[in-house]
Amino acid sequence: MKININRWARSGTYAQFHRRSARHLFGASFFPALAFLLHTSGCAAQNAIQAPQAPQAVQVLTWWKSAGEHKAVDVLAERLNQENIVWHDAVIPSGGVGAGIVLKSRVLAGTAPDMAQLKGPLINEWFDLGLINEFRILPGNSVTNTSGRWDKAFFPTVEELVRTQGHLLAVPLGVHRMNLIFYNRRVFDKFGLHAPETWDEFTAAADRLQKEGIVPLAQSAEPWQLASLFEALLLAESSPEFYRRAFVTKDPSAFSDPRFARALTKMRSLKKYMSTPVREMDWADATKLVAGGEAGMIVMGDFAKGELNAWGYATDVNFGCVAVPNTADYHIYNIDTLVLLKKDSMPQELADRIAQIMVSPNVQADYNIAKGSVSVLRNADQTRMDSCARSSWKVFSRGSAVQVPSLAHDMATDGISKDAIIAETVRFFMDDSIKVTQTQQRLGAITRSLPKAR
Ligand code: BGC
């Protein structure tokens, strides 16, 4: 076990660890096990060994397994390689849920990776628990804005997410936009359809595609994918302020609101445009249906663009992207971040260098092109962005009033609340006998007992 118990205890997080109940994060059995591991292994934690000339390895746990995700990792790995740092992939190919479980059990077993994909409010929770170390971005690095201050380089929302009281808790990699429809351009051209900007246009396009024997919407029944669709519909039927009331502050009255009811009704009404029955599919397989023309559209985050590009489909030629109707002025964001697990075998200087490389302008540009997202740097070069990225960038740049955090992608709330809200929404979608009001009542009741936002 490589957690430095002395530093951990000194930092005061040990006390917090006992004070704060984090059962919702790890479950009840986590604490005795972790305490035992810390007790039995703290003494061995002092001797980090490194040979200055030898390549330094860093093991990174992610759930990135698709073609586009691989390309994005390659950008990072190649750039690190130039600095004699070797990226070791620890990929858990089961989406964020599986990766989160593996990460927790590896921490418990004392075999934590050096860095890991951890997002949203979880970053602060893990820091409070003393499980992650901070990064330092040193003066004189390449991430500076016009006033020369690196700490103003990130978008404010990114900054707020990764930094607490001066501590940089995670390296931000890119900003994904979730409220998007990707559509097959050739199929649309063939039938004289254009990108749906209103629900009427969407319905007209979907009806026509269906008549031509093409599945209008390649949506999958995987819970996170349905949740991703639902959050876009909720935003479409309400406003950023209402969306936050429901998913961030979890105000129980938001769930009985007519706007919430409309979003549920809308989601069910879209079912007729999906395959019957709606089956669970990996998001990349669902995207492939659109690429191949078996399906016309998919509501998906812009990692789908990274994927389509990686397969050789060009933006605006083979496929197009448009905001979900009524959400063009808004941005449901999902920010990818890597954290540094607390272990003495990882020299702080190495972690700091890695962070600096990852947020440097060129790496940011190349990585985000491959990933489908946009840079976390607010002075990024827009000339290298395609139309879809530019539009995401422009909307995101307008600031927090038009931005909302993705529930499906762990940005809006804690894990228990997210799972509870998603479970009810998915149940409603899958079972047509459940009434809108029943789901609203259940969600209202559930949210009364959920942890409150900090
Ligand atoms: C991550 C993306 C990833 C996507 C699909 C999201 O939660 O933020 O980086 O590409 O899942 O795997």
Describe the structure.
The chain is an alpha/beta fold and 454 residues long. Helices cover 47% and strands 14% of the residues. It contains 21 helices and 13 strands. The strands form three sheets. Strands 1, 2, 3, 4, 7, 12 and 13 form a seven-stranded mixed sheet that branches. A four-stranded mixed sheet has the order 9-10-8-11, with helices on both faces. A two-stranded antiparallel ribbon has the order 5-6. Strand 5 and strand 6 form a beta hairpin. Helix 5 packs across helix 16 and helix 5 packs antiparallel against helix 18. The longest helix is centred in the first third of the chain and has 16 residues. It is globular, with a radius of gyration of 22 Å. The two termini are 31 Å apart. The N terminus is likely disordered. The structure holds beta-D-glucopyranose. The site of beta-D-glucopyranose has 9 residues, from strand 12.
Radius of gyration: 22 Å
Structural class: alpha/beta
| Low-confidence runs | 1-25, 28-47, 144-148
Q: Given the C-alpha coordinates, what overall shape results? A: globular
Mean pLDDT score, rounded? 88
The major beta sheet can be summarized as: 7 strands, mixed
What is the count of β-strands? 13
What small ligands are held by the chains? beta-D-glucopyranose
Our measurement of the CA-to-CA distance between the termini, rounded to an integer number of angstroms, reads: 31 Å
